[in-house]
Amino acid sequence: MTNAALPGRPREAVTAGRITERAVCVLAPNPGHMTLDGTNTWIVSEPGSTEAVVIDPGPHDEEHLRNVVATAESLGLSICLTLLSHGHGDHSDGLARFAELTGAPVRAHDPAHRIGEAGGLSAGDVVTVGGLALDVVPTPGHTQDSVSFVLPADGVLFSGDTVLGRGTSIVAHPDGRLGDYLDSLRALRELVVGEGLTTVLPGHGPVLDDALGVIDYYLVHRANRLAQVETAVESGHRTAPEVVAHVYADVDPALWPAAELSVRAQLDYLTEHGLI
Fold first, then answer.
1. Rounded-to-integer distance, Cα 58 and Cα 44, Å
2. What local confidence, expressed as pLDDT, does residue 118 receive?
3. Looking at residue 113, what DSSP letter applies?
4. In the chain, helix, strand, coil percent, each to 5?
5. Continuous segment of H or E residues that includes residue 52
6. Would you call 223 exposed, middle or buried from its count of C-beta atoms within 10 A (0-12, 13-18, 19+)?
7. pLDDT reported for residue 225
8. Mean per-residue pLDDT for 238-263?
9. What is the predicted pLDDT for the residue at 1?
10. Which of 95, 145, 173, 241 could form a disulfide with 264 if both were Cys (CB 3.0 to 4.6 A apart)?
11. Cα–Cα distance between 78 and 92 in angstroms, integer?
12. How far from 237 is each of 19, 245, 263, CA to CA, in Å?
């Protein structure tokens, strides 16, 4: 199957460099089972402006953080503000050092990750820097503090870990909650349709050229997994590890600890709704 036939039509590879007229990717050197090719750090600026926003500086890796700064400088840009999609360390561990390197404040949903006087991130906020406008869209579920960003001028959704460039994301129990995650996916679907967004720039993995297709796939995938977990419980698999071993039997066991987080979230959801 070609990438063009996969959900969301992912591009052939994670591409560092300019992706859209306003967005440039710098790939962090932290590949892994959970981070895929590494964390995508995004430099975003309005054409003709000398001011830029960075989304997710990534891990505390000095070479990577300096590379982000150097990339911006090579484009004639000064980093004026940092935004955080959520607090997982592969996105946030470099925040303090990055703030030292750039002098830029950090806006985040969780006050624990904010630096400087720039404030938080809430529904309806529009981040404006140097003529650039980014809409803030809270998308809890993967984590409670997860936020996505919409760049209407490029028809782009920066999805953090709510939607990945390859595979599917987890609901990081106990902080993440399945009901919230499903609500966030539905809200993103409405946004994609309503604003005509075409492209997803994720926190990990390749760019997706079919925003609506990948969100629809995620919704179907989550419904199918939930049904599988419900059936597994009805068959006598009562604990989360038992359900994982049954439902994810064909998945690399190295991914089972991550799958268990989502299963625990699904078990909570089924219990809360009186389904098990």
1. 15
2. 87
3. G
4. 40, 20, 40
5. strand 51-55
6. exposed
7. 96
8. 94
9. 59
10. 173
11. 20
12. 45, 9, 12
pLDDT digits (tens, 9 = 90+) for 69-93: 999 999 999 999 999 999 999 999 9
Write the CB contacts of 70 (distance below 8 Å, at least 6 apart in sequence).
Answer: none
The whole model's pTM is what? 0.96
Beta-carbon contacts of 74 under 8 Å, excluding residues fewer than 6 positions away, are none
Question: What is the model's pLDDT at position 6?
Answer: 87
Which tokens is 268 given? 């909570």
SS3 161: coil
SS3 label, residue 54: strand
46 touches 76 (CB < 8 A): no
Percent of the chain past pLDDT 70, that is, above it, reads: 100
Task: Quote the CA–CA distance of 132 and 77 in Å, as a whole number.
Answer: 13
Taking alpha carbons only, the member of 69, 65, 66, 45 closest to residue 57 is 65
Contacts 24+ apart (CB under 8 A), 213-220: 213/7, 213/8, 213/9, 214/7, 214/8, 214/163, 215/163, 215/185, 215/188, 215/189, 216/189, 217/7, 217/8, 218/7, 218/163, 218/168, 218/169, 218/185, 219/182, 219/185, 219/186, 219/189
Q: Kind and range of the H or E element at 147?
A: strand 147-151
| Residue 83 to residue 204: CA distance in whole angstroms | 16
Cα–Cα distance measured from residue 2 to residue 12, given in angstroms and rounded to the nearest whole number? 9
Whether residue 136 contacts residue 118, with contact meaning beta carbons closer than 8 Å, is answered with no
Q: Which two tokens stand for residue 273?
A: 């709704």
Instruction: Band the pLDDT of 15: cuts 50, 70, 90.
Output: confident
Please tell me the total number of residues recorded for the chain in this structure. 276
pLDDT at residue 111 is higher than 80? yes
